[in-house]
Amino acid sequence: MRTLDTVAARRIAPVLALAFQLARRDLRNRYLGSFSGGAWALLQPLVQLAVYAFVFGYIFRQRLPGADAPGYVPFLVVVMWPWTAFAEAVSRATTAIQDNASLIGKVALPRAALVLAPVMASFAIHGIGFLGLLLVMLLAGAGIAPAGLALMLPALALLFLFALGLALLLSALQVFVRDIAPALPQILMLWMFLSPVFYGRYVMPEWVRPWFDLNPMTGFAEYLRFALLNMPAPGLRAVACSLGAVVLVLALGLFAFRRLQRHFEDFL
């Protein structure tokens, strides 16, 4: 058992070390030369938040059930920010192998690190912004539960693994099927509006609500609102579907990446 653990550690350590260095370089190069620097990574989601809060909170008059329900902005923040990190991680990592084609052909390196790096960078920058915004809302008395800051961490870790699994799968397929990256933004946008990000399932007809459990993002969204806003907890079926999707996608992503990476140089 110790031998297997040692072998696994030796395989994983170089991937993590290289991915960490690449993620640092990605964050540095992404905002190099801009006047706002890394602050733009916080300003952009804030602008999106303001737009969505205005559209759904004032134009469409989205309201939450219950007299003690939180305001619509906290309701939106606790899910939209993690979704932004997830969507950006998957989008940026999908072309990671294709974007580093010249590097793959010249240098022997763990190729999974090229995919892991943008996932790490996206979750790092948006995670810092998310935590900062939650602390501001907590101090402002916006209904954030202090204990929820710790309770949300397992959900964010699972969401990270979900994004990594999708990134490994899609980045490997993108080498052979170049239509994935152009179509991905539209797919992610559709997925976002089919998920309870801007609304709760209670606004849907009664017969539609059980089907939301089959969407892996439902379990994440409802758990984050449960942990941070003391809203109703997700049902067991929603949690099971989310956990099952993480395990399945991560296993499928690792399997596909390992099987296909030997052919990358022939198609890049």
Describe this structure in words.
This protein has 268 residues and is mostly helical. The protein is built from eleven helices and no strands. The chain is globular. The two termini are 39 Å apart.
The number of helical elements comes to 11
Helical coverage, percent range: over 70%
Largest sheet: none
User: SS-based structural class?
Assistant: mainly alpha
Q: What proportion strand?
A: under 5%
What's the total count of β strands?
0
| Rg result | 20 Å
Low-confidence stretches: none
Order of helices and strands: HHHHHHHHHHH
Distance between the termini: 39 Å
Give a quick precis of the structure.
With about 270 residues, this protein is mainly α.
Present the secondary structure layout.
Elements: H1 2-30, H2 39-59, H3 72-94, H4 96-99, H5 101-106, H6 112-139, H7 148-176, H8 180-194, H9 216-229, H10 236-260, H11 264-267
Helix pairs in contact: 1-6, 2-3, 3-6, 3-7, 3-8, 3-9, 6-7, 7-9, 7-10, 9-10
Protein traits:
268 residues; mainly alpha; 11 helices; globular
